[in-house]
User: Fold this.
Amino acid sequence: MELHIVIHGRKDLANQVYEQLRESIESGRLAPGVQLPPSRLLAAQLGLSRKTISDTYSRLTYENYLVGKIGSGTFVNHLTAPTQRRQSAPVLASQKRIDAWQNLSLPLRHPTREGTLRHDFIGGATAKTQFPLDDWRRCTQHALRQMAQARGFYSQPEGVPELRKAIAGHIAFARGVNCVADDVVVCNGAQQALDLIARVLIEPGCTVAMEDPGYAPARLLFAAQGATVASVPVDDEGIRVECIPEDSHLIYVTPSHQMPLGMPMSLARRQALLDKARRIGAIIIEDDYDSEFRYEGRPTDSLQSMDGFGVVAYVGTFSKTLLPELRLGYAVLPATLREAVIQARQVTDWHTSTLPQWALAKFIGDGLLNRHIRRCHGIYAGRRDRILARLAGDLSPWMYAIPCTAGFHMAVMFKHPIDVALLVALMRKVDIGLYPLTGFYHHVPVRNGLIMGFGAIETLDIDPALDRLRDVLTQIA
Assistant:
């Protein structure tokens, strides 16, 4: 790779090279520790004499911009601090749109590695210690062999056929979803599936109905696409169908494990939702994000399996069963949407990386996914039972859990008024992460509570963390 230096004319050659190298170092484009090409090689690339380059390197070394290492070469000096590049701020025609994106509130943004707490009840995350790394490594090696046989072209936007077939078989078995491989589009997580469906269905000003409280990133996504997002309240049976606006183009729900409150949608409410969607011509997005983990009661049918009209787009993810960092999700689409979504996928980012697709196809096909889910089910069930026992015991004067039967988070409500922001701040001081429900509410009155995830916290850490929670509640209540 050539170092980017542009020579104009045949005058002042050494100074041209000097000025460009110095500016690159000061601006940070050439980072500390970067090795420069040998003087002979750079001279040949630029069509200059080696002496011109050697003199320039010597001058920059004298000024502490470069440092020479005997037997290794010439490097950018670590002592050189890059200067901030200054640009005048233009007045942009799209400034309002830029401001709108900059000011988005993201309540579910996960912490960086440096910001991770010792005991974290964050929702939507799993403990990496449960991930079957050795099995995944073998599947990745298989994926590399499959890629070596390919011709080097871009892959299909809808996903590798073997993975689509594996996903269709898995969700038909585990969730009763009525689909074949051709109905499946592989995505970079469930969030991209939502984005693709929204791109196809939403035009500025149209109405999207969703649960309130509900999954905040979905609300932000629909609004960013130009939709008017209608907040529809929920009760113990799920979304209140009669409150869904008649002009809705899209209805977003989490029927198996309502996000964030946790209760499942009743059978009668599911049927009413399907009937209304068919009558008003709306598409339902069923976000089935973590229902593989069920702890009590009989399994409930997916909304898609009850759909006789072709109005449900079923969205799932492997972020909860495997790792969020893999960014693998999928959508099972009705025939009316399928080709349009595939076209949108190709236009936006073409396709998901094929390496993890091949690996996941092998992982599912060899029965490793089901084995992993069974193993994690027992772990998560134990964590859930421990939290529920504490909520029914020494934490019962302050808190109670909303009943839920699936997933790995629960909503915990306070029995008396309490300053939740103060509680969260005090708990962070003792290295414990708690997360209020506030960010999930939009228009309906906020209920005072927490979303308490138990996927990322280790089982042995639960009691010490809840002991500290009890002590803090005793102090501030």
Q: What stands out?
A: The first strand starts at residue 66 and ends at 69.
